[in-house]
Amino acid sequence: MALPAILPIYPFTRPLKGEVVIPGSKSLTNRAMMLATLCKGPVKLEGALFSEDTALMAEALRKLGFTVEEDPLKSEIHVHGQGGNIPAQKAELFVGLAGTTARFITALCAAASSGIFTIDGTAQMRKRPMGGLIDVLRELGVDIRCLENEGHLPIEIHANGITGGTVSIDASESSQMLSAIMMVAPLAKLPIEIKLKKAVREPFVAMTVDLMRQFGINVERTSEHTVIHPGKYDTPGSKENYKIEPDATAASYFLTLPYLSLGSLTLKALSNPSLQGDIAYQDVLREVGFKLTPTEEGVLSEFKTGLAQGVSVNFEEFSDTFLTLAAISPLLAGPTTISGVEHTRRQETDRIAGAVKNLRALGQDVVETEDSFTVTPNLEALKTLAHLGPIELDTYGDHRFAMSFGILGTYDLFGDGKSWLSIRNPECCGKTFPHFFQLLESLRP
């Protein structure tokens, strides 16, 4: 069901109590789809995410000649791998605003033994960094032509395989560029040693390493370099099935939800430890004052009484979750400082600037730096503004703004159950979580 252009959020008027199933991880779904194409034979991905980003990945793989069959009702994706061969000799590929698809598909096309491939995205994706990946692929012997601006989409790849040797990469703006090189490295003619020019956000790279190992590729990795030898990917497990974990970033919204109604919620199948670095958001909530308990079913999040505490957190390693904390900062006791997020200025939008703008629209005092911002909560100012009518917050076309501030709107600010917050362009959630607002509404006590 389509959502209105401006969606009013209605508060939860009774304590939340129940359970919720979080969709599969976008990062794992897109990585597993790509690795499955490099296996020999069929792979079934269970618990997969179905969203704009994963649909773009699946469609790009199909245009490259792979069989990718999706079954949303069963949350399954069936992939028939070609053992490292890329069937198509020519393709025009569109990656939308999906950074994972853009970087992974670029590396995959570059590793083809032959063929000509063009890759393009939305206007915003054309602004996102690709230069570190393009530079390394050129070092590995790939003919890549930037058709408009150097280091950005659109690009044209004239594939002739990748050679090997020692390369240096600057993946500081996106760890996806390093992950992309790593995943195609086994297709090279010689071993590849990857050295880092600058530090990279480790959790997503560790996820790639773990996944590659599960698909049969050994990765030698230290803090200084990564070495990958030519090899063959293999289907994981004895039944050719791979189970995708629930999305830890999407879980952050529902882990936080109990605070807004002083209730509890079980997130089914969520586990810690996890392949996903964003699981660290659970530690942030514990510092704020939540009680999080692992159970046989998943994780139970509780907040029963009083105010949560403002905190100071460096989100560099799990930055996709910082907006979740930022959105509830007006309701915390004391200032909240969020740091380590300078790189998020170059994601779907400038997430620091957007967060600051929205929080100021809520009457909050916010001090911004290039890398951080501090919010001093002012509940009375928020109530004064909301008394004038529902506050409309922009999403900037960014799914994480819609979901984070959507959670904030479930707080019963005036104790009357009336909507005081509206979200513009809620459909942008389709990028990673198409049914987010429907799922949120289904939890209403």
Short description:
The protein is of the alpha/beta class. The chain is built from 13 helices and 23 strands.
What tags apply to this protein structure?
four-stranded mixed β-sheet; 23 strands; UDP-n-acetylglucosamine1-carboxyvinyl-transferase, Chain; 445 residues; single chain; alpha/beta; 2 domains
| Rg | 22 Å
Number of helices: 13
Whole-number tally of structural domains: 2
The CATH architecture assignment of the largest domain turns out to be Alpha-beta prism
Number of strands: 23
What does the average pLDDT come to?
A: 96
Please identify the top-level CATH class of the largest domain.
Answer: Alpha Beta
Percent helix, as a range, is: 25-40%
What gross morphology would you assign? globular
Strand content: 15-25%
Instruction: Give start-end ranges of low-pLDDT stretches.
Output: none
CATH topology group of the largest domain: UDP-n-acetylglucosamine1-carboxyvinyl-transferase, Chain
Strand order of the largest sheet: 2-15-17-16
The span between the termini is: 22 Å
In CATH, the homologous superfamily of the largest domain goes by the name Enolpyruvate transferase domain
Q: Which structural category fits the helices and strands? A: alpha/beta
Q: How would you sum up the major sheet?
A: 4 strands, mixed
